[in-house]
Amino acid sequence: xxxxxxxxxxxxxxxxxxxxxxxxxxIEQAATKLAECYREDNALLIPAVLAGLDPLVALDExxxxxxxxxxxxxxxxxxxxxTEEPINLYRGIILEACSLVSEDDNNAAIMWLTACDVFPLxxxxxxxxTLRQFMHSLGRIAExxxxxxxxxxxxxxEKVIKLGDLPDSERPDIEVNEEDLYELIxxxxxQQYTNRGGQNVAGQNANRYWAHQNPQAWAGDFADRMSNILxxxxxxxxxxxxxxxxxxxxxxxxxxxxxxxNEQRLxxxxxxxxxxxxxxxxxxxxxxxxxxxxxxxTSQKDSYRVYKPEIAAVxxxxxxxxxxxxxxxxxxxFTLSEAVSKLPECAYEQDYSFHELLTNIRxxxxxxxxxxxxxxxxxxxxxHLNIGDIIAIVLTDEHCELDTLIENSxxxxxxxxxxxxxxxxxxxxxxxxxxxxxx
Length: 439
Fold this sequence. Notes:
By secondary structure, the chain is mostly helical. It has 16 helices and six strands.
C-alpha cells in the first residue's frame, strides 16, 4: 500500500506542491515528528484517528492544531501557499503519523477499535478507498496481535547444551619463602656462614663437614641435604600449582554449568509463556461462550432479561470485557451481538434513532447499580465525541444535554442503529480505552 500522504497527493487532496520535492519532504518530516508524539503518548491516537478520518473535522480540534504546529515548524511559510486552511493536508499528516506507529504495541488495535464502527458513518469523498485500505490494515494487524497460535511444545528443537572446553586462566605468582630457602642452602654448605647482614650464624641442619677438611665427605653431605631442600620446595610449588589449576577448573566448570542452566531456564520460560498465553486464550473463549449462554450480569447480579433492552445492550459489553483478555479477536464482538439479539426487543431488524436510544438510556439509568456507574471511565466532554463517549456521559450525568452531545460528536444527527450493533460498537470502543489504561 502507498503511503497515505502519497495517496492524498495523487488524489489532489494535497495542493500547491507542484512537484516540489522539498515541500513534500517537509510535510513528511512533520508526519514523522507527529508520530514521535504519538509514541510518547498513545492516548493521543484516539482523537487523532477520528480527526484524520473525518472530512468535516473542525480546525480547532486539538489533533488538527498539533499537525498544523508541526508542519509550521518544518515549513515556516506554508500558509502563504494556500488561500484557505488546508484541512486535508492536516488530515493526511495525522493519518500518516498514525500509520507509522500502527505496528507498535497495541496501537493498531486502539485505532481500529475506536474507528471501525464510526468510519462507515462518515461522508468521505475521493479519499474513501485510501481510508478503507488504512482501516483494513489496522484491523489485520489488530487481529494478528490478538490471536495466539497453539504452541508445539513437544516439537521444539532447541539448541543442544554443551559444556565447552575449559578456558586458559592466568596463574598467580607462586609463593616461595626466599629467606627460609637461603638459610637452608647456607646450612647445607657449612656449619657456620656469614649472613646477608654480615653476621656469623650457625647453619640450620648444618653440613657435618667443612669443605677444606674433607672435600669428598662435604660434597656427599651437601648433596644429600641439598636434594632434600629442592625436593621439599618443588613439592610445595607443585601443590600450589595443583591448587591453582583445580580452582581454575572449578571456576570454569561453574561458569559453563551456570550458562547452560540459564539457557535452559530461558527456554522453559519461553515455552511456559507460550503455553499460558494459549491457555488464557482458550479460557477466554470458554468464558465468552458460558457468558453468552447464561445471559447473566456478574456486575448487577441478575439476568439481562430483567432490564430494558437499551440498558441491557449497554451493560452487556462492559460485563463481557471483565470476562476476557484484551485485545480480543474480532469474533468476540460478534458473539456479543448474537447474545444481545437473543433478548426481547433487541432484534437486528429493529432500528432506533440515536437520540431515542440516548433518551431511553438516560431515563432508565437508575436500573443500574450506582457504584457500577461511578466506575465507568471518564470521557472527553468537549467536541468530536465518539459513540461510546456519548453513552458513557449519558450514563454518568443525568443532566447532560443530548442535542449538545450529538452536535459535538462525530455521529450524524439522523443516525439509526440496532441494539446488537450498538452493543458491539461500545465493546470495541471501550476496549480501546482499556488498552490505553493498561499500556
